[in-house]
Amino acid sequence: MKITLTTGSVINEAVDLAILACLEDAPLAEAVVSLIEAADFSGKTSQTRLLYPRGAVLPKRLLLLGLGPADKLTAETLRRAAATAVRQARDLQVASVAFGLNDQLELAPALIGQALAEGAELGAYRYLRYKTGLKPEQTFAVEAMTLVTPEASEEMQAGVALGQTIARGVMLARDLVNAPGGSLPPAALANEAVALGERTEVTVTIFDKTRLTEEGFGGLLAVGQGSANEPRFIVMEYGEAAEGRPTICLVGKGLTFDSGGLSLKPWEAMTTMKSDMGGSAAVLGAMQVIAELQLPLHVVGLVPSAENMPSSTSYRPDDVLTTLSGKTIEVLNTDAEGRIVLADALFYAQRYNPAAIIELSTLTGAIVVALGSHATGMMGTNQELADAIKQAGETTGERVWQLPLWEEYHEMIKSEIADLKNIGGRQAGSITAGAFLAAFVGDYPFVHLDIAGTAYAEKPARPYDVAGGTGVGVRLLTEFLRQYTR
Ligand code: BES
Ligand code: ZN
Ligand code: ZN
User: Fold this and answer.
1) What is the torsional sign of CA 403, 451, 264, 258?
2) Which residue, 85, 173, 305, 374, is the most exposed by fewest CB within 10 angstroms?
3) Which amino acids does the record list as binding Mn(2+) 2 (predicted)?
4) 419 known ligand binder
């Protein structure tokens, strides 16, 4: 979408659709006061009124959009408002929309531009890849948005560009999650990373099964051995380690489909398991954004990718695996496979001597029970790092909520016959999974983000979400890394 800025008031624009976003109980321009009163509009959060002013003001249609009270206004309010605006334009088949902010908002111009651009782009997103015979009105896309504000500035314009770059990363992640497991096996996910490397300054290396065997990726190989679609390990590297250029490792679970393996899931739990690579999608999306923004960092993206299938070659309950670290895992349930592939990837991350390891995975159903789809579960071994991620969650609206990793939880996953067992019983399922992962990161500052509830929306909760992949993590990681470089 083309997003441009002009200074002025949206009610003076002769356009097919103008959006007037208003704070609650804020003073208004003369010309709209009577219109607004007639529309019973107070500016409450998310309130909308579509008016046909018939010459009272210049726009042919005017959508009043409530932003709520001034003291509660955040970037998230604007993201949602822009998404609502674009959806309205699409419904009305208006290709070019003017979005007006008449009030002076208590937010930095750059943040206003960024939030509006993110909301507009993400609100316009659809996944139509497998729809056939669509009529033109069903594929209609809004092409342009003009932001009309009292004072359009260069800062705001730069914010718009940033928001669009970030949104493209989110949409890449959404596309990857929405792709069915059958069309995106590990080798295809690896190809997506290679393609990313071709269009950005990211260096990509793919380990195939032979290489994984040579190197000793015993966890990843075991999980992948039941599928004809062989596992891959994806290494993406942006920048290089240097003085003032710390290394950050991003690790993403890349299960292109999780049937549960021999511990087979019931069908209701198996649908949506194409999204079990949501962590890897976030890492690919974030790598793209980081490279496009040229952040002064060394960022390494690591994705262990496999398909978890039941067959005569599958790994089984009772098997004992030797991971890349040398640590052994007793398998009690083949459906707790994410932590097994991540064990190898997290251990591998240590070779970069990173300042932080941030890992994202659709790891446990238990986190969905605990937090629903409104927050990502977080566990960590370094509070400063966890606090920074939490802050990024508040800024981006990709909220995280922390759970403890006390010693008692580590006790719950000790095995009688191996070093660790891959499930810890019914209690504290998300935390024992996090404790399991923490056993493979050494002393490096580590944060685990369980996105099982947030990576895939069966019913979207925000105007800029759609049913399917949310792209969660891309905005969170980008914000964290941008702040990290300050
Ligand atoms: N991929 C699932 C977790 C999941 C559940 C993601 C729901 C998204 C939505 C994971 O591999 C899994 O199956 N975990 C098991 C662990 C259990 C066997 C200890 C679970 O949560 O049931
Ligand atoms: Zn599973
Ligand atoms: Zn899984």
Assistant:
1) negative
2) 374
3) 253, 258, 276, 337
4) no
Confidence of residue 147 (pLDDT cuts 50, 70, 90): very high
How long, in residues, is the chain? Answer: 486
338 lines ligand 1 (CB under 6 A): yes
Q: pTM for this structure? A: 0.98
Q: pLDDT digit string (tens) for 297-315?
A: 999 999 999 999 999 999 9
- Decide if pLDDT at 183 tops 90: yes
At residue 28, the pLDDT reads: 74
Q: Is the CB of 451 under 6 A from ligand 1?
A: no
- Sequence-separated (6 or more) residues with CB below 8 Å from residue 55: none
Do 231 and 186 meet the contact criterion of CB atoms below 8 Å apart?
yes
Give me ligand 1 centre to Cα 10, in Å: 49
C-alpha distance from residue 76 to each of 112, 393, 395 (Å):
10, 11, 8
Backbone angles phi, psi at 17, to 5 degrees: -145, 125
Q: In the predicted model, what is the mean pLDDT of residues 81-109?
A: 95
What tokens appear for 302 in the block?
């690591």
- Contact assessment for residue 475 and residue 166, using Cβ atoms and an 8 Å cutoff: yes
Residue 30: the pLDDT is: 64
- Ligand 1 centroid, distance to 260 Cα (angstroms): 8
**What does the pLDDT read at residue 36?**
84
d(CA 410, CA 303): 25
Pairing outcome for strands 468-469 and 420-421: unpaired
Q: How many helices (H) and strands (E) does the chain have?
A: 16, 20
Interhelix angle 278-293/186-199, rounded to 10 degrees, is: 10
Which domains occur in the chain, in start order? 2-148 (3.40.220.10), 167-484 (3.40.630.10)
For 394-405, what is each residue's pLDDT tens digit?
Answer: 999 999 999 999
Gap between the Cα atoms of 98 and 147, Å rounded: 6
Asked whether 336 lines ligand 1 (CB < 6 A), one says yes
